[in-house]
Amino acid sequence: MVKGLVTVFPTSIRPRMRKINWDGLEEIRVRIGWPVELIYGNHNEWLGNYDSMIDRQCLDEMLNYITGYSIYAMDEEIKQGYITFSGGHRIGITGHATYEALRDTREHRITNIIDIGGLNIRIAHERKGCAEKIVPHLRKENSIYNTLFFAAPGVGKTTYLRDTIRILSETYKISVIDERSEIAACVNGKAQNDLGKRTDVLDACPKEIGMKMVLRTMSPDIIAVDEIGKEEEFVLLEQMRCSGVKILGTIHAGDIEELLRNPMIRDGVRTGAIERFVELIRLDNGQRKYRVFDGQGNLLWGK
To answer: What does pTM read for this prediction?
Structure first.
């Protein structure tokens, strides 16, 4: 599945892309005026040198392959700064952002990203078994604790969330709200990643809509979501708690102290909508370690 990404590259580069080391590859960065950069857990490499620089023609060719020659059909994703590719790989986009002011507020909304000049292909990895040692610390009698995985961007929160879902689906009915199509990587309604036999996926649906929808229609024991951050999403966590549904999710934070400074997190802990935190840390050698905290930030397991 990962090597299938070769097909998004210009035909002139594909022979070299087929020869690269895909093991441990985390990101592929493509920028106009520079060679392709390959980023591994503990080092980076360049595909060629200054005679192999990406130009506008190369980048436009990639965009055609990525979007199926219909970049306008991807407008909504591009406004969010990314495109989700088959297999769950997320392709971040940089360029010239256009925006508009939201009526009666001081906020703005991105309307498009044009003159695209850079792509960051974040490789989706399915690592079955990576959460085996974490899951026992999330169980609570006949249920689980409401849990958030946290780390800096790119450390692997979604990977560990995905495996936790797979393991818990042996026992519980789980509904996944896969807003960015990264958890399940659905194609034609079928999850490309293994989320277990009792997991149902609502793909490409905003969390604030999807969580309420599956609560009404799917009678889940657990609802799983990726990248919680909006105020309305934290409000929904409390609603789910009051409905007897447990939550698994991810959130960005550098460490437990930073996380607990978030007022919405503190409110969630106070009400019981959030009961456990799992911290993921990338080591210098590219490996991961993890620690489990209670809602007050007390270390329960790990170093």
So the answer is: 0.82
**Which fold is adopted by the domain 135-301?**
Rossmann fold (3.40.50)
Tell me the residue type at 78. I
Structure tokens at 224: 């799983």
Q: Does domain 3-122 have CATH number 3.30.450?
A: yes
Whether 3-122 and 135-301 share one fold: the answer is no
Tens-digit pLDDT string for the chain (303 aa):
577 789 999 999 999 999 999 988 999 999 999 999 999 988 899 998 776 799 999 999 999 999 888 877 777 778 888 888 877 788 999 998 887 777 766 677 777 788 899 999 998 888 999 999 999 999 998 999 999 999 998 898 999 999 999 999 999 999 999 998 889 988 778 888 999 999 999 998 999 999 999 999 999 999 999 999 989 999 999 999 999 999 999 999 999 999 999 999 999 999 999 999 999 998 888 789 999 999 999 999 997
Of 39, 88, 90, 81, the closest CA to residue 282 belongs to 39
Handedness of CA 295, 225, 196, 163 (dihedral sign): negative
